[in-house]
Request: fold
Amino acid sequence: MQPLLKVEGLKKYYPIRKGFFTSRKGYVKAVDHLSFQVFPGETLGIVGESGSGKSTMGRTVIRLEEPTEGRILFNNQDISRSSMAELRGLRKEMQIIFQDPYSSLNPRKRIGDLLAEPMQVHFSFDDSTTKQKVNDLLEIVGLSQQHRNRYPHEFSGGQRQRIGIARALTLQPKLIVCDEPVSALDVSIQSQILNLLKELQGEFQLTYLFIAHGLAAVKYVSDRIAVMYLGQIVELAPTQEIFKQPKHPYTQALLDAYPAADPIVRNRERIVLEGDIPSPAHPPQGCRFHTRCPFAQTRCQEEEPLLNGEHHLVACHFPLS
Amino acid sequence: MLQYIARRIVIAVPVLFGVTIFNFVIMHLAPGNPVDMFVNPFATEADIAIKKAQLGLNDPIWVQYIHWLQNLLQGNLGYSFSTYEPVTQMISVRFGPTFLLMGSSLLIAYLLAIPIGIISATRQYSTIDYTATTFSFLGVSIPHFFMGLGAIYLFAVVWPVFPTGGMNQLGGDGGLSDTLRHLILPALVLGTGVAGNMVRYVRSSMLEVLGQDYLRTARAKGLREFIVTNKHALRNAMIPIITIIGLDIPLLVGGAVVTEQIFQWPGLGQLTIQSINSRDYPTLMAINFIAAAVVLLSNLLTDIMYSVVDPRIKYNK
Amino acid sequence: MNTAKVSESIHFQQKLGEETGYLKMIWQRFFKHHMAVTGTVVFLLIVLMAVLAPWLAPMDPNRVDPVSFQSAPSAAHILGTDDVGRDVLSRLLYAARVSLSVGLGAVAIYVMIGTLIGAVAGFFGGWIDGLLMRITDIFMSFPYLMVILVLVSVMGPSLTNIIVVLGVLGWPQVARIVRGSVLQIKQMDYVKAAVALGYSAPRIVFSHILPNAFAPILVNATFGMANAIITESSLSFLGMGVQPPTASWGNMLTQAQSLTVLSSQPWMWLPSGFMIVIAVLSINFMGDGLRDAVDPKSFR
Reply:
């Protein structure tokens, strides 16, 4: 099957400026040489701590940030160097849902206008069609058409996130980047939104790039999961495999961070991460995880492991078995 | 730190060039031919042409600008169109009085604004605060010229304790006390005008600091209110207060023009008005250049002081 | 206004939104500010005065009374006459038109220029931002009143020229404020969403960013109007502004530079001086109330 999105060697560096005018002192390597594919209709979960570069990656893939290097193939078309004008047409195909439902809706726009505007810009519907489509969208995400004339501040966080989802759907995209869409919401609301996203995926044949902080959040929605650490993917495998048989010590550590219900599992030795994630401006030499890895050896300090494997990819010299 | 200062200076230089270019272009758009001023009314066309060539007025504007710049670097600001004196000399005579007036006004402004602002902030929403606020608004809202006229009317006409203008008594000894007597009214007028702005600023930056957690901690430790206000709060409030010196200088320069004119204070401001009336462009160019340099320098000093006082300012970007 | 403040005010707008509409809230808070309300009322009276000048004025402001010049207030001339025998009260009323048109005209011009420059600099960033901000620095380093004096004298003193000069020189502060707001708002997710939805740059700037940067611009414009009125009156006072016979509060004071007028004919200069103060003060109070109303810090 043809991948809908194919990322090859993607890099996103932010220059650190210092001294006279613009002489560069170094780079923050937010995303450093990433490659992966997303197939039509699937959900690829992206997991990592704060500072792992997962959000930057999500935004770079749909060109909200300029990639420093690498190729982004969307439907076999390289969009990594397209100009803003060329992109404008392509924007219809890929949308984003943001983490913070408060800052993601313009406080000065009524919900109806907020949802009608994208259609007015990209399609030439007449007014009644647009209105009908807005009503339909509101209904689809579980709101009612009476909400059309209200402003964002009149809604709760969960409702706002529904509006954000409706907005992402206005242009009938193929790919949606979900940038931690539920982490700002109450736990009771989280599952509602996740259910909604899942329903919509089936109904509109959507492809998701689902970014989340922890593994638990993506377990329910993802077909495959990629674990990121310091701008790189350390493990990429189908969801079941990641949970049953993690190969990277970091993935294991993330799994161990959750309290287990099963007493047998609970008594097993757990990997507990110590210290903070190193600065992406000065990532460690060799394997980036070696400073926090309980199994690190000399080789890990010298040689950078590559992401290897068929269905279950891992970047580790001494993968767990 | 040194690098930061160097960077600020490097940025200030092109700005100064920009100001001079802007000035130069304006002056050249001015109606009236400067040659008319130099030659007698009976001069022939040929004479005028020769004179024009001598003055370099036939050169393209940028050549003239380079000439002006070269002369400037040698300390030569050209010759006045109206008095034929070297501009450098005319200005150097006027510099002292203006410096004296602006300096004493700034001092008065600070002596008024800082205590009033602090008292106003510590007693927020009290009668004192409202009175201070009202007066500071008056200070901002009364034009310098009206305040000056009012001051002359009250303190030189109705109750003649001060002279109506000038810097020294005609035929007097020109001594220090005489100058001071002449200085008081214009300095007060200019100073209170600037102070009005400052009070608002001192008050708000003090209020901001007073609301901080570390002051609550200081009070919770049982420190006396006097120490809390004057030691803990004031020191932090000084940071924003320092910056307004830089903001006040352009205001002061403008105010000085009007104030000097009303009090016939023989400074650069009065010279500005005279030069405008006589279309004396070389002198105007020079005054504008100096004023811009002073404004830039004060901005620069403010930035540097700011970074010295506030350790949080980073020198990169 | 620095960037921290802007971000706070943006955050504040959202917080406020939880309870009532933002504008409604500002409106209510403005009305609690007594001085601001008084200022607004006085300002509206002055506007009314300017508009109704032809009906309110007892006589033509430029008509010369051949028998009474420099005459003290009397039944025929309530505020007396000036040095050539024109009615001071009538001139006072008509002069309100000059001050208000300078205030509104100059501010309208510079808010437009400043908003455009600030928005372009903030939105596009990079070298465009660098260049525009250097130009702004240059304009900010002008000794304001001096450059205005020179420009007006070069262009010829007139009402239109004063409005144009004040408008063309006054924009740097607005540009900085707008740039700061735009830089902040640009980081908001709803602007990122607008980019992701494929909106054009002008649509994003004008329809999504600027409406959210409105409050600080309005506050600046109000204070700017007061300053423009003061500057015009100063210029006119110095003879570099509105030229007689057109009446301006500033040029009505010019004669007071003579000691005789100053000391023995106060009706010729005191009323117009007070009118300037009242007009400027009322606008400044309005601005202060507005600033407090939109400032998150004064909210308790």
